[in-house]
Amino acid sequence: MRAQRRHELHRNELYAELARLVEFVKKWRTYIVWGLALGVLAVLAGVYMVRSAERKRLSLADTYDRLSFDATTTPDAFLDGMKTLADSADRRLAAMAAFQIGDYYYWGSIAAGGMSGDPRRKELADQAAAYFRRTIRDFPDQPLPVAQAHIGLAKLAESEGDFAAAAKEYQAVTTMKDLAGYPIVADARQGLGELDGIKGPVRMATTTSAPAGAAPGTSAAAPGGTQAAEQQPSPTAGD
Q1: Burial category of 97 from C-beta neighbours within 10 Å (exposed 0-12, middle 13-18, buried 19 and up)
Q2: Could you state, in order of their start, the residue ranges of all structural domains in the chain?
Q3: 5 pLDDT exceeds 70?
Q4: Where is pLDDT greater, at 188 or 218?
Q5: Quick one: average pLDDT of 157-182?
Q6: 175 and 156 Cβ atoms separated by less than 8 Å
Q7: What percent of the chain has pLDDT over 70?
Q8: Taking each helix axis from N to C terminus, what angle separates 91-112 and 75-86, rounded to the nearest 10 degrees?
Protein backbone atom coordinates (compact mmCIF):
# COMPACT_ATOMS: atom_id res chain seq x y z
CA MET A 1 0.00 0.00 0.00
CA ARG A 2 2.75 2.40 0.92
CA ALA A 3 4.55 1.67 -2.32
CA GLN A 4 1.40 2.27 -4.30
CA ARG A 5 0.82 5.50 -2.40
CA ARG A 6 4.35 6.70 -3.17
CA HIS A 7 3.83 5.83 -6.84
CA GLU A 8 0.64 7.86 -6.95
CA LEU A 9 2.37 10.83 -5.31
CA HIS A 10 5.18 10.74 -7.89
CA ARG A 11 2.65 10.47 -10.69
CA ASN A 12 0.70 13.42 -9.35
CA GLU A 13 3.88 15.47 -9.10
CA LEU A 14 4.70 14.60 -12.70
CA TYR A 15 1.24 15.62 -13.85
CA ALA A 16 1.57 18.86 -11.93
CA GLU A 17 4.93 19.62 -13.57
CA LEU A 18 3.53 18.85 -17.01
CA ALA A 19 0.54 21.08 -16.32
CA ARG A 20 2.85 23.96 -15.32
CA LEU A 21 4.95 23.40 -18.44
CA VAL A 22 1.86 23.45 -20.67
CA GLU A 23 0.69 26.62 -18.98
CA PHE A 24 4.09 28.23 -19.44
CA VAL A 25 4.15 27.32 -23.14
CA LYS A 26 0.65 28.67 -23.64
CA LYS A 27 1.59 31.92 -21.92
CA TRP A 28 4.88 32.45 -23.72
CA ARG A 29 4.37 30.50 -26.92
CA THR A 30 4.67 33.55 -29.17
CA TYR A 31 8.08 34.42 -27.72
CA ILE A 32 9.18 30.79 -27.83
CA VAL A 33 8.25 30.48 -31.50
CA TRP A 34 10.07 33.71 -32.31
CA GLY A 35 13.10 32.57 -30.34
CA LEU A 36 13.26 29.27 -32.21
CA ALA A 37 12.78 31.06 -35.53
CA LEU A 38 15.57 33.53 -34.75
CA GLY A 39 17.84 30.67 -33.70
CA VAL A 40 17.26 28.87 -36.98
CA LEU A 41 17.86 32.09 -38.92
CA ALA A 42 21.11 32.69 -37.02
CA VAL A 43 22.34 29.20 -37.90
CA LEU A 44 21.40 29.66 -41.56
CA ALA A 45 23.10 33.08 -41.64
CA GLY A 46 26.25 31.60 -40.14
CA VAL A 47 26.34 28.83 -42.73
CA TYR A 48 25.81 31.34 -45.52
CA MET A 49 28.59 33.61 -44.27
CA VAL A 50 31.06 30.75 -43.99
CA ARG A 51 30.25 29.50 -47.48
CA SER A 52 30.35 33.04 -48.88
CA ALA A 53 33.77 33.68 -47.33
CA GLU A 54 35.07 30.41 -48.77
CA ARG A 55 33.76 31.28 -52.24
CA LYS A 56 35.41 34.69 -52.00
CA ARG A 57 38.71 33.14 -50.89
CA LEU A 58 38.66 30.71 -53.81
CA SER A 59 37.81 33.54 -56.19
CA LEU A 60 40.78 35.58 -54.94
CA ALA A 61 43.03 32.54 -55.26
CA ASP A 62 41.86 31.99 -58.84
CA THR A 63 42.61 35.65 -59.60
CA TYR A 64 46.12 35.31 -58.18
CA ASP A 65 46.80 32.19 -60.25
CA ARG A 66 45.51 33.84 -63.41
CA LEU A 67 47.61 36.97 -62.90
CA SER A 68 50.71 34.93 -62.06
CA PHE A 69 50.61 32.30 -64.79
CA ASP A 70 48.50 33.60 -67.68
CA ALA A 71 50.95 34.76 -70.34
CA THR A 72 48.27 36.98 -71.92
CA THR A 73 48.03 39.18 -68.81
CA THR A 74 49.12 42.72 -69.65
CA PRO A 75 51.49 44.61 -67.30
CA ASP A 76 48.76 47.07 -66.32
CA ALA A 77 46.29 44.28 -65.60
CA PHE A 78 48.94 42.43 -63.60
CA LEU A 79 49.69 45.45 -61.41
CA ASP A 80 46.07 46.46 -60.93
CA GLY A 81 45.05 42.93 -60.01
CA MET A 82 47.93 42.34 -57.63
CA LYS A 83 47.40 45.69 -55.91
CA THR A 84 43.77 44.74 -55.30
CA LEU A 85 44.86 41.40 -53.86
CA ALA A 86 47.52 43.09 -51.69
CA ASP A 87 44.70 45.03 -49.99
CA SER A 88 42.44 42.00 -49.53
CA ALA A 89 41.48 40.49 -46.18
CA ASP A 90 43.18 37.18 -47.05
CA ARG A 91 46.55 37.80 -45.43
CA ARG A 92 48.30 34.94 -47.19
CA LEU A 93 47.24 36.11 -50.63
CA ALA A 94 47.84 39.77 -49.71
CA ALA A 95 51.42 39.02 -48.67
CA MET A 96 52.08 37.00 -51.82
CA ALA A 97 50.62 39.78 -53.99
CA ALA A 98 52.65 42.51 -52.26
CA PHE A 99 55.84 40.55 -52.91
CA GLN A 100 54.87 39.96 -56.55
CA ILE A 101 54.42 43.71 -57.09
CA GLY A 102 57.86 44.39 -55.64
CA ASP A 103 59.25 41.61 -57.81
CA TYR A 104 57.67 43.18 -60.90
CA TYR A 105 59.21 46.59 -60.19
CA TYR A 106 62.58 45.03 -59.41
CA TRP A 107 62.84 43.35 -62.78
CA GLY A 108 61.53 46.49 -64.41
CA SER A 109 64.50 48.33 -62.92
CA ILE A 110 66.88 45.70 -64.26
CA ALA A 111 65.26 45.88 -67.70
CA ALA A 112 65.59 49.68 -67.68
CA GLY A 113 69.37 49.22 -67.76
CA GLY A 114 71.66 52.20 -67.50
CA MET A 115 73.70 53.25 -64.49
CA SER A 116 72.40 52.90 -60.95
CA GLY A 117 71.70 56.65 -60.87
CA ASP A 118 69.46 56.54 -63.96
CA PRO A 119 66.16 58.27 -62.97
CA ARG A 120 63.86 55.65 -64.51
CA ARG A 121 65.82 52.77 -63.02
CA LYS A 122 65.92 54.46 -59.62
CA GLU A 123 62.17 55.09 -59.68
CA LEU A 124 61.43 51.43 -60.36
CA ALA A 125 63.97 50.27 -57.79
CA ASP A 126 62.41 52.55 -55.16
CA GLN A 127 58.95 51.15 -55.92
CA ALA A 128 60.30 47.62 -55.64
CA ALA A 129 61.92 48.37 -52.29
CA ALA A 130 58.69 49.95 -50.99
CA TYR A 131 56.65 46.83 -51.73
CA PHE A 132 59.32 44.48 -50.39
CA ARG A 133 59.40 46.47 -47.15
CA ARG A 134 55.61 46.53 -47.02
CA THR A 135 55.57 42.73 -47.27
CA ILE A 136 58.03 42.44 -44.39
CA ARG A 137 56.30 45.08 -42.26
CA ASP A 138 52.65 44.18 -42.78
CA PHE A 139 52.79 40.39 -42.96
CA PRO A 140 55.17 39.04 -40.30
CA ASP A 141 52.88 36.02 -39.97
CA GLN A 142 53.59 34.98 -43.59
CA PRO A 143 57.20 33.75 -43.47
CA LEU A 144 57.70 32.68 -47.09
CA PRO A 145 56.66 35.96 -48.77
CA VAL A 146 58.63 37.82 -46.08
CA ALA A 147 61.74 35.77 -46.88
CA GLN A 148 61.27 36.39 -50.60
CA ALA A 149 60.98 40.11 -49.89
CA HIS A 150 64.25 40.06 -47.90
CA ILE A 151 65.98 38.40 -50.84
CA GLY A 152 64.44 40.99 -53.17
CA LEU A 153 65.93 43.76 -51.02
CA ALA A 154 69.26 41.92 -51.05
CA LYS A 155 69.24 41.83 -54.86
CA LEU A 156 68.40 45.54 -54.98
CA ALA A 157 71.27 46.31 -52.63
CA GLU A 158 73.62 44.21 -54.76
CA SER A 159 72.58 46.10 -57.88
CA GLU A 160 73.54 49.31 -56.10
CA GLY A 161 76.85 47.91 -54.89
CA ASP A 162 75.75 47.98 -51.23
CA PHE A 163 76.98 44.53 -50.30
CA ALA A 164 76.75 45.11 -46.55
CA ALA A 165 73.02 45.84 -46.86
CA ALA A 166 72.59 42.81 -49.13
CA ALA A 167 74.31 40.57 -46.56
CA LYS A 168 71.99 41.87 -43.84
CA GLU A 169 68.92 40.90 -45.86
CA TYR A 170 70.28 37.43 -46.64
CA GLN A 171 71.13 36.90 -42.97
CA ALA A 172 67.57 37.84 -41.99
CA VAL A 173 66.32 34.87 -44.03
CA THR A 174 68.82 32.42 -42.56
CA THR A 175 67.61 33.22 -39.04
CA MET A 176 63.88 32.78 -39.74
CA LYS A 177 62.88 29.78 -37.61
CA ASP A 178 59.58 29.26 -39.41
CA LEU A 179 61.48 28.44 -42.61
CA ALA A 180 63.60 25.58 -41.31
CA GLY A 181 64.02 23.11 -44.15
CA TYR A 182 62.78 25.47 -46.87
CA PRO A 183 65.02 25.75 -49.98
CA ILE A 184 64.86 29.54 -49.77
CA VAL A 185 67.08 29.41 -46.68
CA ALA A 186 69.73 27.59 -48.72
CA ASP A 187 69.32 30.26 -51.41
CA ALA A 188 70.01 32.95 -48.84
CA ARG A 189 73.11 31.16 -47.59
CA GLN A 190 74.29 30.83 -51.17
CA GLY A 191 73.74 34.56 -51.66
CA LEU A 192 75.90 35.27 -48.62
CA GLY A 193 78.61 33.02 -49.98
CA GLU A 194 78.54 34.71 -53.37
CA LEU A 195 78.87 38.14 -51.77
CA ASP A 196 82.23 37.09 -50.34
CA GLY A 197 83.48 36.31 -53.83
CA ILE A 198 82.19 39.40 -55.62
CA LYS A 199 84.97 41.46 -57.15
CA GLY A 200 84.59 44.37 -59.50
CA PRO A 201 81.32 45.12 -61.34
CA VAL A 202 77.98 44.15 -59.89
CA ARG A 203 76.45 41.02 -61.38
CA MET A 204 73.85 41.64 -64.03
CA ALA A 205 70.61 39.75 -64.60
CA THR A 206 70.58 36.34 -66.24
CA THR A 207 68.53 35.44 -69.27
CA THR A 208 65.91 33.13 -67.81
CA SER A 209 62.25 33.81 -68.50
CA ALA A 210 60.48 36.69 -66.78
CA PRO A 211 57.47 36.13 -64.51
CA ALA A 212 53.98 36.73 -65.85
CA GLY A 213 53.21 40.43 -66.05
CA ALA A 214 56.84 41.52 -65.92
CA ALA A 215 57.79 44.83 -67.52
CA PRO A 216 58.24 44.77 -71.31
CA GLY A 217 61.75 43.82 -72.28
CA THR A 218 62.40 41.90 -69.08
CA SER A 219 64.08 38.56 -69.73
CA ALA A 220 65.32 37.58 -66.27
CA ALA A 221 63.48 35.50 -63.72
CA ALA A 222 62.08 37.23 -60.66
CA PRO A 223 64.36 37.58 -57.61
CA GLY A 224 63.94 34.19 -56.15
CA GLY A 225 61.61 33.78 -59.12
CA THR A 226 62.42 30.11 -59.46
CA GLN A 227 62.13 29.75 -55.72
CA ALA A 228 58.72 31.43 -55.87
CA ALA A 229 57.60 28.87 -58.41
CA GLU A 230 59.13 25.97 -56.55
CA GLN A 231 58.32 26.95 -52.98
CA GLN A 232 55.21 29.10 -53.05
CA PRO A 233 52.21 26.82 -52.44
CA SER A 234 49.21 27.40 -54.63
CA PRO A 235 46.80 29.78 -52.90
CA THR A 236 44.03 27.32 -53.68
CA ALA A 237 45.55 24.88 -51.21
CA GLY A 238 44.34 24.83 -47.66
CA ASP A 239 46.05 27.25 -45.31
Answers
A1: buried
A2: 1-69, 74-231
A3: no
A4: 188
A5: 93
A6: no
A7: 69
A8: 140
